[in-house]
Amino acid sequence: MQKFKVQSFILILVSFLLGFSEFIIVGILDDVAASFAVDVSTAGYLVTIFALAYAISTPIVTTFIGQRRLLNVLLLLMGIFTIGNLVTALAPTYTILTISRVVVAIVSGSGISVIMAFGTYLAPLEKRAWLVAWIFSGFSIASVFGVPLGTLLSTQFGWRSAFYLITVLSFILLFFIKISLPGDLRQSTSDSNRISDQLAIFKDRRIQLSVFLTMFSLAGIYVVYTYLRPIFSTELNIAPSLITLAFTAYGFMSLLSNQLSGKIAEKRGLLTMPKVYIAEIFILGFLPLLLNIRWLGFLDLMLLGLTMYLINSPIQLHILGIAEKEFPQSMVLASSFNSIFSNIGIAIGSALGGQIGQNFGMQALGPGGAVLAAITLVLTLMLNRKNAKVSAERVEV
């Protein structure tokens, strides 16, 4: 049990660093824009580009893992991740910065897929929901501590210092990955290496609905979240010295969101989610009105943070359950679905947010996100209906 705790801690640390590197742009958006003399909306597209590279590359890389040792794959990915963040810190031009972010995105998506596979194989069945929730919570911990810390470093020492910190932490973590995780773990030897066999999982209607649900869920949030710093500073008029605290508060809410996600997965799972998305529609829809009253606007954003990751554990365990029973050759690929389609959602949400912000102003971001939350609600209801139909058919057989 002690060994499992250590291995779990390492997996969560990897998740934290991957999240730290991905989310830090949100906290330093103004500083990066000023450094390269671009406007904030243009800098915001770094989030979109990262997410697209992440989403497009992850299934390609994961399908080539095959029978390779997962530890060696993870060490290679984290080595490239370390170098990529160092290049970001040193980037002399906006173009090189963008390229380095693409490289980091490519290995980040595959990295989270591999640690999810580690978690699935290493965790006892009764601990699986707990570990999945905590691996996802690594991203929220990055929001709680990483993004505010990066914002503070950016304010005091320049935005590059945040990426130097990520580089040092990544290098140290490589050593602990090597000595803590099993070196002989692979995908099941009975699993097919053929890419076509792995991709067969996409034929399942439940998987199709699940990945679209994942995508639109985070898209609705990121219409607003991508531009959280300018919302804090210009719409709510929060003092620059308090911006870090505001991000910390939002990060704690997103951490709580991931923990509640695990609780939801252990109980009613996806059946609970329609109520969540109904609430989210109202939270986003009323945001323009509430931004006119600072404390109400801030409270509304905190509630948005609370809903941000509630889908993670229920949908991850749902997808892995289907893969484990019916598509075992696709376990690593299936482990990546949440990351892949969340990042497609991030790309959609951040790009849409940029367009809404440029054309209609920051106060219009909330209603834009509410439309995507409504689409997510419909997808959730469709998935729950499909799951009930499949269960009924199995009972009849």
From TrEMBL:
Membrane-spanning parts: 9-29, 44-66, 73-96, 102-123, 130-150, 162-181, 207-225, 237-256, 276-295, 301-320, 332-352, 364-384
InterPro entries for the chain: MFS, MFS_dom, MFS_Efflux_Transporters, MFS_trans_sf
Keyword tags: Cell membrane, Membrane, Transmembrane, Transmembrane helix, Transport
Cellular component annotations (GO), alphabetically ordered: plasma membrane
A Pfam family the protein falls into: MFS_1
Stored PROSITE patterns: MFS
Location of this chain's protein in the cell: Cell membrane
Topology in membrane: Multi-pass membrane protein
A GO MF term: transmembrane transporter activity
Domain Major facilitator superfamily (MFS) profile: 7-388
Keyword Transmembrane set for record: yes
Protein name (record): Major facilitator superfamily transporter
Record organism: Tetragenococcus koreensis
